[in-house]
Amino acid sequence: MVTVWNWFIASLRARWFLWMMIIINGLGSVYGFMWYAYQLEMTSPAFLRIFVPDSPTASTLFTLVLIAMLVGRSIPSLEAFAAVTNFKYGVWAVAVIIAGAALGDQLNWQHYMLMASHGGMAVESLLYARFYTLRLRHILYVAAWTLLNDLLDYTLDIHPWLADELEVYHNVVGWATVGLSLFSLWLVYSLVRFYRRAQRS
């Protein structure tokens, strides 16, 4: 089992594996933007649209991180934005789908597909943390963006649409999202520091 795990970790930066991950994340990002097409069309004024497609934007950023790894480069600020948002919105999507189901929303195949794909977003962000070169200042940049995004999402009502059963708990979801942002920032930075110390020892 240890040998298999070591092989898997070593494969994360192999060219064949990176290409596979780039294709999966790239196609998922395209699908995600298509998913948000109607909400983007309805969002006004237009400058707010950058804050709407949270998950596909996060997965697009992560795709760019993978491309940078493929060509032997690291971009710390991009890693920070991609890792934090990819993890945050991966967890967020799974959580709101489960919460909606617990309140009576009927799940279909798309819900399960979304939970699987978004769960994968969260996991990949953590798996690749051992390779990130980001520093605290990069995390602080992301903190400013994500908390601004949360503020606009839940004061201007431009967050991803919720199940009807969950919409009545709009404020609770908003505060939980802020908490998830803070947790995501802490987790990514803590993991990077852990792996950095491990490499030095």
Short recap of the structure:
The protein has helices spanning 2-11, 15-35, 37-42, 54-70, 76-102, 109-127, 136-155, 164-167, 170-200. It has 201 residues and is an all-alpha fold.
Topology:
Blueprint: H1 2-11, H2 15-35, H3 37-42, H4 54-70, H5 76-102, H6 109-127, H7 136-155, H8 164-167, H9 170-200
Question: What ranges have pLDDT less than 50 throughout 5 or more consecutive residues?
Answer: none
| DSSP helix fraction | over 70%
How many structurally independent domains?
1
Could you give the order of the helices and strands?
HHHHHHHHH
Protein name: DUF1405 domain-containing protein
InterPro entries: DUF1405 (IPR009845)
Organism: Aneurinibacillus aneurinilyticus ATCC 12856
Transmembrane segments: 16-38, 58-75, 87-103, 172-192
List keywords for this structure.
DUF1405, membrane, transmembrane, transmembrane helix, 201 residues, 0% strand, 77% helix
Overview of the molecule:
The protein is mainly alpha-helical. 77% of the residues lie in helices and 0% in strands. The protein is globular and about 50 Å long. This is DUF1405 domain-containing protein. Keywords: Membrane, Transmembrane, Transmembrane helix. Pfam families: DUF1405.
